[in-house]
Amino acid sequence: MSHRVHTFRSVLVGLVALLLGGLSIALASPAWAHDELIGADPSVNADVGALPAQITMTFSGVLMDEPGATQVVVTDAAGASLTDGEPTLDGTHLTQSLSGSASGPVTVTWRVVSSDGHPVSGQYTFTVQAGPSQTVPPGETTTTQTQTLTATPTSSGDGGVPVFVWVLLGLVVAAALGALVAMLLRKSRATPED
């Protein structure tokens, strides 16, 4: 009988250690999530009346401002570059000046270094509806349609864990710990004192 109790306790301690180890890894995983694009002006899939003088992208965290770490390429439907100069970074906001003219789809390809040190990249498009000779000065908006940001990131790594996973994990861990405490209390009451 004593052998069974020791085996049971060993298995139980092993399971608790495994659960706690898994919990510590799961709680640390949000720190592994890379920053992501959460907004843009012009926005993803927007229709604008003329090519803006600049584009602005907003990220979920402060980006690293190291030489060569930030790259933005903006091209028209024919693949000609509309990028004018180097991008400027201000915390979570990345601004790229544009020059030239465009009509039709404009593609924005970006690469930044996340606050955790990992490179993150992606691409999105917007459409210029006006003739190729018009540009819009900074601060003016000619957006005729704006849609919610749905950029296609091409970063390596996960984009975070859904909330329901955290809730489910918390319930499982709480139930396991509750069962462990109940069994240990029952065993301690059932075992006579030496």
Report on this model:
- The chain is 28% helix and 28% strand.
- The protein is α+β, with helices and mostly antiparallel strands and 194 residues long.
- The strands form three sheets. Strands 2, 5, 8, 9, 11 and 12 form a six-stranded mixed β-sheet that branches. It has a four-stranded antiparallel β-sheet with strand order 1-4-7-6, with no helix packed on it.
- Residues 132-136 and 140-159 have low confidence and may be disordered.
Short description:
Pfam families: CopC. The chain contains two helices and twelve strands.
Q: Mean of residue pLDDT?
A: 76
Order of helices and strands: HEEEEEEEEEEEEH
> By helix and strand content, what is the structural category?
alpha+beta
Q: β content, as a range? A: 25-35%
* Integer-rounded radius of gyration: 27 Å
* Low-confidence spans: 132-136, 140-159
**What is the highest CATH level, the class of the largest domain?**
Mainly Beta
CATH topology of the largest domain: Immunoglobulin-like
